[in-house]
Amino acid sequence: MSISYDFGREAEDFAVNYLIQKGYKIMARNYFFRKAEIDIIALFENELIIVEVKSRSSDFMSAPEEAVNKKKKKMLILAADDFIQKNNFISEVRFDILALLKTQQSWSVNHIENAFNAAEI
Predict the structure, then answer these.
(1) What number of other Cβ atoms are within 10 A of residue 81's Cβ?
(2) Which pLDDT tens digit goes with each residue over 9-33?
(3) I need a surface site. Which of 24, 50, 63, 79 has the fewest CB within 10 A?
């Protein structure tokens, strides 16, 4: 695999462990619908949480969360809708971004809860 793939996988593994430590129950990882992918789907306090993980080894050019643009948000909403319908979920849905920055051997986390909602897109 490539270095960027390995880095992304490491970031997603870190994100899963971070969420579990916070009390989230992981429902799915890397859920695909058409061309969209949801990195992590979790349950927390009776809410379905759709998590987009963005990671960088430097924030020199931009913060990781800035990579979640309008097109990406629309794709996440479509994929979330598919997951909800296929699994007959009836609960509130929240879209979070986990922005991770790795310097040396440690990760810094910016967990942006309710980063956007379907109504604003």
Answers:
(1) 13
(2) 888 999 999 999 999 999 999 999 9
(3) 63
This prediction has a pTM of: 0.88
Measured between alpha carbons, how far is 24 from 29 in angstroms, rounded to an integer? 13
* 95 in Cβ contact with 80 (< 8 Å): yes
* Cβ–Cβ < 8 Å for 84, 94: no
With cut-offs at 50, 70 and 90, classify the pLDDT of residue 63: confident
One DSSP character per residue, 60-113 reads: SS--GGGG--HHHHHHHHHHHHHHHHHTT--SEEEEEEEEEEEETTEEEEEEEE
Residue written as token pair 């996988």: 9
- CA 61, 63, 64, 70 dihedral sign is negative
CA distance 111 to 121: 21
